[in-house]
């Protein structure tokens, strides 16, 4: 990360009216006016539109819709989540990179972002379509003291954080399809993949992957996905700033994660239920052991889905595809 | 692995009386008498004591107490477990190597063995003392379709398989201290470490590590371990063949694993209870959330330890150190 660039963006953020004189920048960065000019040029090269107005100074008129380190870290309102951030223009999969970083000991809250994934993955190694410049493809390293059996709760928690963030930034209200899909108008806009490495009775680390279709248009999706997937832009006829959305997710996630670690799953469960489009509906659950049909009547206190067959038999659903 | 060497050892194993003529060997291996002589020399270099008797042929009079690939695979009575075998004279940790192999896609049943570990690990990254030539330091890759919450059951299953194998080979009957230690005369002779990589609702792979103190004498242990640890040799004043013990563990494990996958945890639970030295006793359980004292009254059907305080309150113990 270019730290001068990041400091400069922070200065712009904090400046009243958004103007900074060359003199102010030179003083704050401790560099020459020529160096200031070079930094401004470098921001322009990154896609920032910067006005220079006589007697007022420089102002950022428009920002690129990027997710580079300094796009994320500048103005990020968290203590931990995302403060240690790795950005890749192209990655095979942010999950894979996050696993490698976690194995090397990178701390809780470490974030991996890519502008594009070449082999993005969803649950059960299904491919996740991750084209360049339009979505959020991110993975977060966590190191909670939990049992492996508790990790599905963090998938549900992440779904709530992502739904809240999307609501805040776009005004759209996604619904959550159990366990980990965010839907708008019955089409998928967000997927969540939670992976863990653990001893049998203790999590060593978790990687939570979040994929959000943000600014794709319909034609960006392969034909076979067009009936199933949507983007935030397609749902509201408007482009959205990706970095802002990542920041909002990290902020919401951090808050819910602290709540969860202090108070347990119950408050998360209530929030999840408020976004759920699964509860109360007749569903079909394809599990490892066969297919069951019935009504999704609720979550247990542990976060397991309870399905009731028409004859009254109740089943706990730990893992399934539902429809 | 030298496959000719392995074939030759198998021929000796299957030969009535244990004798093979140079002619027989040459025919079976499809090589010259000179090549036969070289193979015999190579076995002698590995520590095999081979008699050559006129008119009868060669006979293995004594075997080295090794755990090389062909020591394990020759005569191994399993379909899957250990048939794909990696041996290292020295390894940092067989668990670490097994993780790497699993990530590269090595199949279920793949076994990693080392004659010595430089940084052997037990639960919670505690060091595991693994000196050269005297113990069994092994890790097994499994790929069952299980929930992460079910993996502690496989730790219990492995403890039973190891106890059965030790009983069969040595005549000693170890007791199991919940969840994963095998004890003889209240000292630890075997530790088991189960690690997993998973999605939140599906195991991707498991690595089961088993460490057995086989042929150490008291002075082989560091002073601080002498009061806590024992070896099979120390318990019976006799050395034991390590490869035979590994083979017996793999055979017992495979049988129990098939039983478990077909019939669930109940039969494993009954076997585990028959070896347990924890049930019925007053214990102290140090968990993540504090220390509880009470009587270990049983396992749940899922394999979770149930502890009853003196006031009758029951606690499920998922993860703890007990004493």
UniProtKB/TrEMBL annotation, chains A, B:
Keywords carried by this UniProt record: ATP-binding, Biotin, DNA-binding, Ligase, Nucleotide-binding, Repressor, Transcription, Transcription regulation
Positions contributing to biotin binding: 117, 121-123, 188
Ranges for domain BPL/LPL catalytic: 73-261
Reactions that this protein is recorded to catalyse: biotin + L-lysyl-[protein] + ATP = N(6)-biotinyl-L-lysyl-[protein] + AMP + diphosphate + H(+)
GO function terms (MF aspect): ATP binding; biotin--[biotin carboxyl-carrier protein] ligase activity; DNA binding; transferase activity
Pfam families found in the cross-reference section: BPL_C (PF02237), BPL_LplA_LipB (PF03099), HTH_11 (PF08279)
DNA-binding region listed in the record: 22-41
Gene Ontology BP terms: protein lipoylation; regulation of DNA-templated transcription
InterPro entries cross-referenced by the UniProt entry: aa-tRNA-synth_II/BPL/LPL, Bifunct_BirA, Biotin_CoA_COase_ligase, BPL_C, BPL_LPL_catalytic, HTH_11, WH-like_DNA-bd_sf, WH_DNA-bd_sf
Enzyme Commission number, as recorded: 6.3.4.15
GO cellular component: cytoplasm
Keyword ATP-binding: yes
Record function comment: Acts both as a biotin--[acetyl-CoA-carboxylase] ligase and a repressor.
Family recorded in the similarity comment: Belongs to the biotin--protein ligase family.
Name the record gives this protein: Bifunctional ligase/repressor BirA
Organism listed in the record: Bacillus oleivorans
Gene, per the UniProt record: birA
């Amino acid at each position: 990360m270019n730290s001068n660039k990041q400091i400069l963006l922070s200065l712009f953020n904090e400046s009243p009216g958004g103007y900074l004189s060359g003199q102010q920048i030179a003083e704050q960065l401790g560099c020459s006016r020529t160096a200031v000019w070079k930094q401004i040029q470098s921001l322009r090269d990154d896609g920032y539109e910067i006005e220079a107005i006589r007697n007022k100074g420089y102002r950022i008129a428009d920002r690129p819709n990027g997710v580079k380190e300094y796009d994320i870290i500048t103005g990020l309102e968290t203590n931990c989540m995302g403060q240690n951030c790795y950005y890749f223009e192209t990655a095979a999969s942010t999950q894979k990179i996050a696993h490698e970083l976690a194995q090397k000991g990178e701390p809780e809250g470490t974030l991996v972002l890519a502008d594009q994934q070449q082999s993005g993955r969803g649950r059960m190694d299904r491919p996740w379509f991750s084209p360049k410049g339009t979505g959020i493809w991110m993975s977060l390293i966590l190191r909670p003291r939990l049992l492996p059996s508790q990790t599905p709760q963090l998938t549900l928690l992440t779904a709530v954080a992502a739904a809240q963030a999307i609501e805040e930034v776009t005004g759209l209200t996604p619904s959550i399809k159990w366990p980990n899909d965010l839907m708008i108008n019955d089409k998928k806009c967000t997927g969540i993949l939670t992976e863990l490495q653990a001893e049998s009775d203790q999590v060593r680390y978790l990687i939570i992957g979040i994929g959000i279709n943000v600014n794709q248009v319909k034609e960006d999706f392969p034909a076979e996905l067009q009936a199933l997937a949507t983007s935030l832009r397609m749902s509201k006829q408007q482009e959205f700033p990706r970095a802002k959305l990542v920041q909002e997710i990290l902020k919401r996630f951090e808050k819910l994660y602290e709540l969860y670690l202090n108070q347990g799953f119950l408050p998360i469960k209530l929030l999840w239920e408020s976004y759920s489009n699964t509860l109360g509906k007749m569903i079909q659950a394809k599990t490892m052991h066969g297919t069951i049909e019935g009504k999704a009547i609720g979550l247990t206190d542990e976060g397991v889905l309870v399905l009731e067959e028409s004859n009254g038999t109740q089943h706990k659903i730990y893992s399934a595809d539902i429809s």
